[in-house]
Amino acid sequence: MSDLNNNNYSKDSIEDTRKKKMDEFKRSFDKSVMSDDYDDVPAVHEYSDENSYRGFSSSSSSLKRRKSNEINSYSDSDTRKRIERESRKALKQQSKEDKRIEKNKAKRNQKMFRWVWLTMVVIIGIVFSQVLMVGINDMLAIKREEDPQTVKISVPADPTIEGIADILYKNGVINNPKYFVLYANITTSEEDFRQGEFEMETDKDYEAIINFLQSNVNRTDIVTVQITEGMNALEIANKLHDEGVTSDVQEFLDVCNSDVFDEDFAFLAEINNADKRYYKLEGYLFPDTYDFYLNEDPESTIYKFLNNFENRVYNNEAKYGTSKKTTVEELVKNTDYTMDEIITIASIIQAEAANTDDMYNISSILHNRLDNGIEMGVAQLNCDCTVYYPYREYDDVPESIRGTYKSTYDTNSFNGLPAGPICNPSLDAILAAVNPNDTNYYFFCHDTAENGSTPYYSTNIADHEYYLTIIG
Hints:
mainly alpha; Dna Ligase, domain 1
């Protein structure tokens, strides 16, 4: 019987058994790994040395933990935190890298944009400078002054700057209408341009052109019109229309009834009953020969009349039958009448008198009636020239109202003077109104024009009726 150890096993037997157990364990472990199942792996003994071993056993749960620790170790808490940190670090690094790439890309794009922008600025600058130079040359008339021509320019009523520019361009006064429109819009208003005919040279710069077209002094479409003594406002308006001075009769008459001239002419302040007058400025449209422009603005036309009246009546000193020079204004101050009343008297004298000498006798008759008419039984002036005012006679009254027409100026209907003048008197008539002859006449009449309009004056109604029978 061979030697046995204390456990009654031979050394070879023990070694064989150990190897057998190890092989069996290995096969079982490999099988469990291959099948991914640790539940069926049997318990084994692990030897600590060749003489002794200690029991080694593992339950199925222990093997599963080993599986979890060895095969799925990435899912434990520490590992997850480490992976998350590394992931965040990697993402942050990737983000920085992306930003760096974008920044470099933006720098390249910005650099490219700057070059493109600079190129565009240079190109635009060159083009703009050329365009600007063309405009400046035209504005300053640099090339046009080499061979100037005189051309006729016709500016229509209510012109626009664009329309004027087109006219100037077509006539060779400017080369670039758009530049002229731009300059004119900045420096002036289209309302400042005058309509009419102009003759101008083509060597003028923009400023000179504008100033030239805004002054009536440079117009060539001048019309000379004679306004005769005794014409009333309606007759003047019609004549100006016939001569082409005004395009609208009613517009002219409306201006005659306006207050636009009150601040310029102090004598208009005496008119305190404009609402009772047919035309406020009647009597002040001084008769004379005038130069007007075709289609002239009514305000400009009437201003000429009023300015002439002021010069002749207020500012002009002359010798009026006395030894010293004086003005009509000073003569009126020596009467009991206002200037407006004198002009009203003068308008009746102008309408009734046959000649200048006749004016002074008729003036005496009017003054006698105004001063003593009530006592003499002739308080009313009874002047035929006032019956149909503002019309000259019955046939001049519009047919639609002729049958029932009644003038508020009819001196057969009230005592004293009418509300205002009935026409525009001459300076002779005004002087006669200021300085009447000293007579006792209260009546007058005239023979027919065929008989020389011979005047007849009377101190009483009987003599007057007798003279009426003579003239038939």
